[in-house]
Write a structure and sequence with these properties.
- The chain has one domain.
- The protein is an all-alpha fold and about 55 residues long.
- The radius of gyration is 13 Å and the shape is elongated.
Length: about 55
């Protein structure tokens, strides 16, 4: 039960990253979703880091 909050937090972070990346790609008129990919990758890395730090405590 303790880690279910981390799962929801990870989903929210990835959702915001995807939305922000898609909006930025649309605003700049990119054919390829480079900002969406970049933001999602940063979201995954940040979420994994947060999980590791929480588990180590």
């Amino acid at each position: 039960m303790k880690y279910s909050g981390l799962a929801f937090q990870m989903l929210i972070v990835l959702g915001i990253a995807a939305y922000g990346g898609m909006r930025l790609d649309a605003y700049l008129g990119n054919k390829n979703p480079w900002f969406t990919i970049l933001f999602m990758l940063l979201g995954v890395i940040g979420s994994i880091y947060k999980i590791i730090v929480s588990v180590m405590k």
